[in-house]
Design goal:
Helices cover 30% and strands 24% of the residues. The protein has 514 residues and is of the alpha/beta class. Among the domains are: 9-15 and 30-160, Rossmann fold (3-Layer(aba) Sandwich), CATH 3.40.50.980; 412-513, ANL, C-terminal domain (GMP Synthetase, Chain A, domain 3). The strands form 8 sheets. The chain has a 5-stranded parallel sheet with strand order 4-3-5-6-7. Strands 17, 18, 19, 20 and 21 form a 5-stranded antiparallel sheet that branches.
Length: 514
């Protein structure tokens, strides 16, 4: 297929040059589409002319949300380069693995993460390091000054097509290492098209973005579809419950994404009772299953339309849709498949389709499915079969064609919208000399939806406390991955095939900790 997504912003800037595209709250700057496009051109020209970045090169950023993310996201594809942001919540150790796996030509770093970068520096190789926001890094180029001094003309496009990689987004790995999902140009384009058509977005819509832009949700739920159709994005550097509610109202936001934890924080805020959301078309919750009671409380207290969504990095942030009218009677459902998407629910062992109402593994096919994993053919082959992506999630379909997510086949915890893979956490704790065996399970939590509960078996004659073990992993894994509770056991139950029977652990320990 000989189409690509490198011209999306250029075309929109041509159609509506003077319309406001992005409001950056940190600086107060309001960028028109024409201004935003010129920024992306300067970035592309700087990367190409000054740093030698060419088609296929990866460019990474370690920073919180700012306009620089949009410079990179829309500018790099114009020269065929690949946008590959890093999760700034990770430790230096975790990031070293990603950098060495990805081998980016350029890394852009802001002041908040200079210490993390310096900790990584001796273990990674980079052609260029670029300072953002005045970050003091020896030998670094200066982002703002050098990009601003570069030509704003459209760079010449290289030979691109639908399968050309647009970005690489890392997801936590079930085998203990993160995997880089390759997002091709077709996935970017069809996410825009299908979301706009299926969700009824228009140029009049305004949406806040406070979720990190290293996440698929931050990039693809509303940002790219709205900038495609000519709407407006309100970009926040961080999330603050009360402040965000105030500027959502001040900026006239009409479509709002959040995770269940965020909606609970808003509801607990002192400003919630007086907030008037009458201009909001709908709220949508993603990242983790939203408790029906939370949705119902929002509807009753605020008279709003509240939906639940579903998406994955590998298949896009928006895979289902439902109408406002269906959102109440179908509470708990994620809706029906969006345009240009196919879904199946199958028995995971046989691959046979299940009956209506029966639970099975959700498979997704369409132009919004990723191209596979970066330098990981084994993971690609196990996840994508003849164009069908195996989500690892259990789902069922009702008689009306609405889908419901029932749980996960893959061993993963979703805590506050973040994925925590048990294998990764367990591998770190097994490095502790006092630990003989370990297993991580999810425990329900009112605030975060789910948190980690670690069951530990100590080596005979050795000692360790819960605090000892948590302290041990502080610099090895991100804070959100550290289990909230550690319990000690004499042994773990195993199957005949040597696999820990986590169902038995849940039966025993989830009752015990309630």
């Amino acid at each position: 297929m000989h189409f690509h997504a490198a011209d999306l912003l250029s075309k929109r800037a041509y159609l509506t040059p003077d319309r406001i595209a992005v409001v950056e709250l940190e600086t107060g700057h309001r960028y028109t589409y024409a201004e935003l496009n010129k920024r992306t051109n300067r970035l592309a020209n700087f990367m190409q002319a000054q740093l030698g970045v060419t088609k296929g090169d990866r460019v990474s950023i370690l920073a919180k949300n700012s306009i620089a993310y949009l410079d990179l996201f829309y500018g790099l594809p114009k020269i065929g380069a690949i946008f590959a942001p890093f999760n700034w919540r990770l430790t230096a150790r975790e990031l070293v693995y990603m950098v060495n796996d990805l081998e980016p030509t350029v890394l852009i770093c802001e002041p908040d993460f200079v210490s993390t970068f310096e900790e990584m520096r001796s273990e990674i190789e980079l052609d260029h390091i670029v300072s953002l926001g005045g970050a003091e890094i020896d030998g670094a180029r200066q982002y703002e000054a050098e990009v601003a001094a570069t030509s704003e003309g459209e760079p010449e496009r290289p030979d691109l097509d639908a399968e050309s990689p647009y970005c690489i987004l890392y997801t936590s790995g079930t085998t203990g290492h993160p995997k880089g999902a390759i997002i091709p140009h077709r996935q970017i384009l069809f996410n825009c098209i299908s979301t706009v058509v299926s969700w009824g977005l228009t140029e009049k819509d305004v949406s806040p973005v406070y979720t990190p832009l290293f996440h698929a949700g931050g990039l693809f739920a509303f940002l790219t579809p709205l900038l495609y159709v000519g709407g407006r994005i309100i970009l926040a550097r961080d999330f603050d419950p009360e402040a965000s509610m105030r500027w959502i109202l001040e900026e006239g936001c009409t479509v709002i994404l959040g995770v269940p934890t965020l909606f609970q924080m808003w509801m607990d805020s002192a400003y919630f009772d007086e907030a008037d959301f009458s201009q909001v078309h709908f709220f949508i919750s993603g990242g983790a299953t939203c408790p029906p009671q939370l949705m119902q409380t929002w509807r009753e207290k605020k008279g709003v339309v509240f939906r639940q969504g579903y998406g994955l990095t590998e298949v896009g942030a928006n895979c289902f849709s439902m109408t406002d009218e269906d959102s109440v009677p179908k509470t708990g459902s994620v809706g029906k498949p969006i345009f240009h998407s196919k879904m199946r629910i199958v028995q995971p062992d046989t691959g046979e389709d299940v009956s209506v109402g029966e639970s099975g593994e959700l498979l997704i096919s369409g132009p919004h499915v990723c191209a596979g994993y970066w330098r990981n053919s084994e993971a690609t082959a196990s996840s994508i079969d003849d164009g069908w992506f195996r989500t690892g999630d259990m789902a069922h379909q009702d008689m009306d064609g609405f889908y419901y997510i029932d749980g996960r086949y893959k061993d993963m915890i979703k805590s506050g919208g973040e994925n925590i893979y048990a294998a990764e956490v367990e591998a770190v704790f097994k490095e502790h000399p006092a630990i003989k065996d370990v297993a991580l399970i999810g425990r329900p939590d009112e605030k975060w939806g789910e948190v980690g509960l670690l069951i530990v078996v100590l080596e005979q004659g050795k000692k360790a406390t819960e605090d000892d073990l948590k302290e041990f992993c502080q610099r090895k894994i991100a804070r959100f991955k550290i289990p909230k509770q550690v319990l000690f056991a004499d042994s773990l139950p195993y199957t005949a095939y040597g696999k820990v029977e986590k169902a038995k652990l849940k039966e025993k320990y989830l009752v015990q900790v309630e």
